[in-house]
Amino acid sequence: MHQAAVSAPRHDWTVEEVRALFAMPFNDLLFLAASVHRRHFDANKVQLSRLLSIKTGSCPEDCKYCPQSAHYDTGLEKEQLMEVEKVLAAARKAKEDGSTRFCMGAAWRNPTDKDFTKVLRMVEGVKALGLESCATLGMLTGEQAHALADAGLDYYNHNIDTSEEHYKEIITTRTFEDRLETLANVRQAGMKVCCGGIVGMGESEDDRAAMLTTLATMDEHPESVPVNMLIRVPGTPLEGVKDTDPLEFIRTVAVARILMPKSHVRIAAGRQAMSDEMQAMCFFAGCNSIFTGEVLLTAGNAAPNRDQSLFDRLGLQPETL
Hints:
The chain is of the alpha/beta class. It has 12 helices and 12 strands.
């Protein structure tokens, strides 16, 4: 299995094989993941993305981790959809700071026609700046996916969050199958997929293995795989879950790298709480993408000067288009 893991990408992984990867001794797993990473990427280059919340709060979904859900009182200041020019100004700043991808997130179950027209203009504007564009707007119809593709959207983010079995413990307002349907619409429209999950929501290691198996057995692997560490937001149902074990998080990053060797694996939410040493081990384990900037949607993110200091100490360089 180990030799197979280092060779060409596979789409026929079984959950038993993925569980076996999780069960490997930590040093062996990281060595294997680093070997896979070096076969497909420059191990000292990291892709930088910037994420902006273009519409904040009042989401009708009940995702138990999310401060933007209308079901929970988290003290979040709600904001309507931003004006196009304000979004493009933020995109220009992101480009100046070295980001190559600009991601726009809206707290919706699905976009309305009126708002969707504005989002299409944002996508066109971001593309005109020479940035890769990404959006996460909730569920999409096939027609909406094609409209985004026509506007020039490169990536669509729609995370599966966790295993199909654990999913119903986290979200009841839509199904795991709903998520997969939107991802299929994105693929059919010709866009790239950004899809990952969250570690630390009370799931088991088997749940993590099942989640990654779902991604790794797609006909095409997601080009971008965010691995998020739960941010325990006061007011959400998951505020009291126990801390995520850093080594288990790194293990998840490593397994994602082995299963999806040509994908960009991103450490996303929760990075502000990660030590430099934990992040360094994530980079060694095959992570090659991060979100930059002070804020990640509504949560804090690692400060840019801290990122630059860490990159300098590790000899890492931003990836260029």
